[in-house]
Write a structure and sequence with these properties.
The structure holds two protein chains of two kinds. Helices cover 19% and strands 40% of the residues of chain A. Chain A has five helices and 15 strands. In chain A, strands 3-9-13-12-15-14 form a six-stranded antiparallel barrel. A two-stranded antiparallel ribbon of chain A has the order 4-5. A two-stranded antiparallel ribbon of chain A has the order 10-11. The model of chain A has no long low-confidence stretch (mean pLDDT 90). Chain B is built from 15 helices and seven strands. By secondary structure, chain B is mostly helical. Chain B has helices at residues 4-19, 24-30, 33-43, 97-103, 113-118, 122-128, 132-142, 178-188, 199-206, 236-240, 276-290, 297-322, 338-344, 358-379, 390-406, and strands at residues 47-50, 89-92, 159-165, 168-174, 215-217, 222-225, 244-250. In chain B, helix 3 packs parallel to helix 7 and helix 14 runs antiparallel to helix 15 (390-406). Classes of the chains: A alpha+beta, B mainly alpha.
């Protein structure tokens, strides 16, 4: 039986904010699962199923600051390039997006060490010294606690917004004939429509009231989010791969829709519905998903 | 009949003719089919057709050329195969890009020169006016852009990710789908303030005039640049894009990063009721309530979702204030009701137990505010049919009260 471990207010500096070729901002879901997996590896080097297992992570956002600024019509990245070269000029660089964020994580764990209290007490130090989140440094962790009784646990998560998978919205749109990019754009754009306030006469300007709306207005705060990878080539050994024994494939990021929702029990049946996990392997997909009323059945 | 290939060469030779650095006859001969195409066939091997160029990751990254066509599947993921695009990318010596321009020429039947070479069509043979042997030489030269490289090579400059699997790990070299990036940018273009598509509608809104179609906007796009001043060094499509990719924002809602206005007399009166998000929610609620059958179950569900969001919107502000240093409400000039102090000022936390009903009271204040704000919305509008009838009003008020009562425990 899994237990839930709350890592409250994890403050991260300079995390990667360019997590897919289509999106910027909040780090990819894979980055959070990467941290969870790293924790498992620290405590259980061989991923032994009888020892400490961290099988999933709930992602709760408290604060987020993107390192960017407005330039004309667009936003551009705040960049640094250092050190300066020998003439004191800025070296050429590959653009890197960075962000600062404060999140709480709900880790889904099995086989906690027997001296649980001691383990929980040393966990923040362990994470700060040995883990990164999306390449960013963990500056502080407010506290770590076990979420024992599910119904009472919810209040410990607030105030925050939980990241929820909304791939179902994309699937519905794609089954209705849209391609993936149009489905994504449709979900994110703001529509401006007008209602005439007087009879419309051809060729004459009519007074009207304008209003703004989003396609999924009643579905909450919809965002695009990178949730994993799509493999392009079969598994084979490649020159210059990081190690020679692991099967290698070329891949690309996959992006779908998500939503930030307050973790209120009126919306969720259990803590388990907040948890992102690695999806069971499919032919070409290496990705993360959730199991709740919003997540779609696997196609 | 117009020969598109002759046309193409005609176009290309204009620049050298203008510059006049060489003899005109020499230029004419250089841009004749037998000379130019033969030369291009030799240079074709300097280019590779790819779907995922490595240099987007790092200008020094070199991998085996990856050219992938994936199948469409309604799996809800933006990935290769799920985006309809005809675009293909090419990498290699930027000086040989004219060869690719030649190969992507579209002939009368809608197929490209490259596709004609692949199928060795008589049409192409005739356009080029060559014998079989030369044609087949040229063909093998040009087909070198489709790499048959059997070796597999990734690069230390490519992001290589270990992904856990039941068997252990798979190592993934993550590449950029440049055709999809280009497609993304092309399709986002119409949302731009300067784009022609929606210009009349944008103008109409500025003047508050009616426009039948309306328009759409995609705010907060970010520009990511690839290749600096030489985007052609990354790939052909990157060069077409001016070295820019446009990225969509993924920002969580904010708690506490805004400037927080502390309420002096009443938290609910201090809420910025004209806030765009709130107005959008209330209008959506209103539209749902206007639907005649307001007891319909699906509509009730949608209404509940919207109410949850309004509730969250208010809680968001409350949480911001709760983050303030304890005792803020004791400062001079502040005169908040006790229930609100218990709720919002952490200095009063311990006194909460002494007033067991404070949550119910806040819930009551919240629904009063909700109904007041909701009801004020239509009055500000000049449209006529917008007032709620008495019966609807009572029904909605009751629904709201019930909703807030159910959520009492979340007033923390």
């Amino acid at each position: 039986m899994s237990q839930y471990l709350l890592i409250k207010r994890l403050k991260v500096q300079n995390a990667n904010a360019l997590s897919s070729p289509f999106t910027y901002g909040f780090p990819a879901v894979t980055a959070f699962l990467g941290l969870a997996h790293k924790l498992q590896r620290i405590l259980n080097r061989d991923n032994n199923p009888d020892e400490f297992i961290c099988s999933g992570v709930g992602i709760l956002s408290h604060q987020f600051t993107m390192q960017d600024y407005q330039a004309g019509y667009e936003r551009v990245l705040k960049l640094t390039a250092n050190p300066l070269d020998k003439d004191g000029d800025r070296p050429s660089f590959i653009e890197e997006g960075r962000c600062h964020l404060t999140v709480s994580l709900v880790l889904e764990v099995d086989n906690l060490p027997l001296q649980t209290e001691r383990f929980l007490a040393k966990l923040p130090q362990l994470m700060m010294s040995q883990c990164k989140l999306a390449g960013g440094d963990i500056l502080s962790i407010q506290r770590v606690q076990l979420l024992a009784d599910e119904t009472k646990s919810w209040r410990f998560l607030l105030p925050s917004y939980a990241l929820i998978e909304r791939r179902d919205l994309m699937i519905t749109a794609m089954q209705a004939g849209q391609d993936a990019l149009d489905a994504l754009h449709d979900a994110l754009k703001i529509n401006y429509t007008s209602t005439p306030l007087e009879p419309v006469v051809e060729g004459k300007e009519t007074k009207a009231e304008w209003s703004a709306s989003r396609t999924y207005a009643d579905q909450g705060w919809i965002v695009p989010i990178a949730t994993g990878f799509h493999a392009l080539t079969p598994a084979a050994f490649a020159e210059q791969q990081r190690d020679a024994t692991t099967p290698h494939r070329f891949a690309e990021s996959v992006v779908t829709l998500g939503a930030f929702m307050m973790p209120l029990p009126s919306r969720f049946n259990s803590l388990s519905e907040l948890i992102w996990r690695y999806a069971p392997p499919q032919k070409d997909l290496y990705w993360c998903t959730q199991h709740n009323q919003y997540s779609a059945a696997d196609v | 009949m117009i020969n598109p290939i002759t046309n193409f060469l005609e176009g290309r030779k204009q620049k050298p003719l203008k510059e006049g650095k060489k003899d005109v006859l020499e230029i004419e001969s250089e841009y004749s089919i037998p000379v130019w195409v033969a030369n291009a066939a030799q240079r074709a091997k300097q280019l590779s057709l790819v779907s995922h160029p490595a240099k987007f990751s790092h200008p020094d990254a070199r991998t085996t050329p990856i050219f992938i066509k994936s199948e469409f599947k309604a799996d809800g993921l933006v990935r290769s195969g799920n985006v309809s695009t005809e675009l293909a990318d090419v990498v290699g010596n930027a000086a040989a890009l004219d060869v690719y321009a030649f190969l992507s020429l579209v002939l009368e039947d809608g197929q490209t020169v490259l596709e004609h070479f692949e199928q060795s069509t008589p049409v192409l043979k005739q356009l080029l006016k060559v014998d079989d042997e030369t044609f087949s030489n040229w063909r093998s030269g040009f087909l070198a852009v489709k790499s048959t490289d059997q070796s597999i090579k990734t690069d230390a400059n490519i992001k290589q990710v270990y992904f856990p699997t039941p068997e252990g790990y798979t190592l993934l070299s993550v590449l950029y789908p440049s055709a999809l990036i280009t497609e993304n940018k092309e399709r986002l273009r119409k949302f731009k303030a300067y784009a022609e598509d929606f210009k009349p509608a944008r103008e109409a809104r500025k003047k508050k005039h009616y426009h039948a179609a309306g328009y759409a906007d995609m705010p907060k796009l970010l520009i990511q640049k690839f290749g600096g001043t030489k985007p052609q060094n990354i790939s052909k499509l990157n060069s077409n894009n001016g070295g820019q990719a446009w990225l969509l924002p993924c920002f969580p809602p904010e708690i506490g990063t805004h400037y927080t206005r502390l309420p002096k007399n009443d938290f609910f009166k201090s809420l910025p009721s004209r806030n765009e998000n709130l107005q959008e929610l209330l209008k959506a609620l209103y539209r749902l309530f206007k639907i005649e059958d307001y007891t319909n179950k699906a509509i009730r569900q949608s209404r509940k979702k919207l109410m949850t969001q309004v509730f969250e919107w208010v809680l968001g502000f409350a949480m911001r204030i709760q983050e303030q240093p304890a005792g803020w409400s004791k400062a001079e000039g502040f005169d908040l009701p006790l229930t609100q102090r218990l709720w919002l000022d952490s200095a009063y936390q311990e006194q909460r137990d002494l007033s067991p009903n404070w949550q119910t009271e806040i819930a009551q204040q919240l629904s009063d505010w909700f109904i007041f704000t909701y009801n004020r919305l239509p009055k500000e509008s000049t449209a006529k049919d917008i007032h709620l009838g008495d019966e609807e009003y009572r029904a909605f008020t009751q629904e709201l009260l019930d909703f807030v009562a159910q959520h009492e425990e979340f007033i923390l």
